[in-house]
Amino acid sequence: MPYAFERESNMTKNTALLGRSFRPGSAGFTVLELGLLLAVISILCAIGFPMYLSYSRAQETDGAARVIVVALNQARQLAITRGVSFSAETQTNPNNRMRFCSGTVVPCPGGNVYTEAGTDANGWRTLENGSRITAGPTITFSSLGAATANGILRVQNSSATGSLDVCVAPSGRIRVQAVGTACPPN
Description:
Elements lengths: L1 H16 L13 H52 L3 E6 L5 E6 L22 E2 L5 E4 L3 E3 L9 E6 L6 E6 L5 E4 L9
Antiparallel strand pairs: 1-2, 1-5, 2-3, 4-6, 6-7, 7-8
């Protein structure tokens, strides 16, 4: 029996080290403590949620622009490896889609449309995250990988609060830039 009392006394010492004494009437938190915690959490949410939404929309726009860069690089790579010109034809809102065709004739003639996994039967691929293509000229790459002219495709996020330009230089270099920035020559 002395061992059981000794063990209980050690447990009481350990709980006193935690900063609270566990007496029968003092278990839990007070209403004041819970209210203060709720106020702090509410203030953090009020500050953090708009910042999160802004970040999320910026990432959506950037992601859509990067998808277009990858697609245009694929059209350029097809032109180089196949030794013929390839054009990237776009359709703006509400379709928001793009397709490739061999040659320089746009709209793409039926037999020259490039199809693969991820495209429909007519070669169209769509932006999947709800973003929109708001300006989309036809971009043509020669068999050497150079673009026939400067071209700027504008991408806008689904809530229409942000846009980015995808610039294609005559050298064939493709980059993402802020709206209104001039497309560099190379």
